Amino acid sequence: MSEQLSVPLKKSGEVSLEESLKSFLGPYLPSPGGEIEKAVKELDKLRREVVSKKPPKTTFALDQLFKYHDQLVTLENLFPSETLIPFTWDDAFSKASVFSGKISLALSFMGYEKHCVLFNIAALQSQLGIESSSVDTDDDRKNAAKYFQSASGIFEYLKPSEVAGDNLTPDFHPDMLASLSAIMLAQAQEMFVTKAIRDHMKDGIIAKLCIQTEEMFADVLLKMTRDAVKYNWDRSWLQNIKGKKFAYYGLANYFQSKVCGEKKMIGEQITRLNVAIENMKTGQDKTGSSNFHSYFMSEAKRFLAAAIKDNDFIYHEVVPTPAKLAAIPKVATAKLAKVTPVPTKFDLDFKNPFEDMKIVETPKPTVVESEPVPVSEPNVGWNIPLIAEATPEPVVSPVAPPRKKKSEENGKGDATDSRSDSPATEPEPVNEPAFTKTKAVRAPTWSQVMNDSWSLIKPYFEEAVLGKK
């Protein structure tokens, strides 16, 4: 099956995981070196191979991405959500121009690195799906459907991502991821249509599968033309999806016309063949491929010529207009492609060296619990706080030292006043008022303050204004 779309891979800059992870692991490991240090070196090497460089379109490259993703899952659980490792990733669809470079985003989150790797896993699966679908064997078609369904599940899983918040590159916008998921699922449905045709299933069943595929591509087109993302697509992508929508509507009418031929409904058969040819031709024009469904175009023209000849000479049925055709029945069971859930780990056989690692926590100091200190309630609203009123102790007056009397026994003036020659005696300290007794009283109200003030100024007011004494 040709004319299918593959998602380009995101590109990332060089990051020294070895040095950064050693700085993280050092304080927590019981002893440096050993298997963990070796695993860190291998992880750093693995990232350079599968992320920093463009991986080849091989299953080995996909397995390497699986291993890197699984180790990131373990490391994400070991470290805090925010690290000191800046992971820079470019938008998968943006292109550098003369005026600006590619859109990119740098975040220090293990989860961001993991989500970008998941995006690349889905992108590589879409590329492997196209390679498998180009080989016309049942096993390859089965593998292609498997790849497309897995990629659809990953894009659907990434859609509600909150790793980067509002700082998203366009390829991580929810509407963009929803579109990519729908594209992958519709391309997986194509594989089931091809298998049904190759297995020569009944024409009515194939017609139902084709009309379901047309509906899925119509849903893809609706998602791709939403306001948030409609300018982010390359024009060829939109034309491809439009072409697929027309082509599968034409193919559904082609197989339904064969049902009409078996039932000798020649008039309806002629109309459906005309509708089939017209829509498949439009599909070829929009996809830009003249080979797309070219075999069925040739068959439709051959059957149309035969049906017109039979109707002219034998049946003479009225040929209805396309508007009067009954819709081809749609059944839920015709949607064979299903979204594959994203596993926690892709490679169950791979022994992750970080799985058994236990972070040694630093012992916390013993804290002696003390009685809780009561916390006073804050003053809320207009409540008047209680004010502590102090009752001072009575003040003790200082006692002056006694003077010495003059000697009157000898009648001589030898005696002197003790204040003149003797040093001054230090006075006893004054006992400061001790605020030992307190009681809580409420502050006076505004009316009380006004009454007290009026009692003080009333006499002066009467004398000055009223002339009273």
TrEMBL record:
Composition skew (Basic and acidic residues), residue ranges: 406-420
InterPro entries (alphabetical): BRO1_dom
Region annotated Disordered, chain positions: 393-448
Any one GO biological process: mitotic cytokinesis
Any one cellular-component term (Gene Ontology): endosome
Top-level taxon of origin: Eukaryota
Domain BRO1 intervals: 3-375
Pfam families (alphabetical): BRO1 (PF03097)
Name this polypeptide is given: BRO1 domain-containing protein
Organism: Allacma fusca
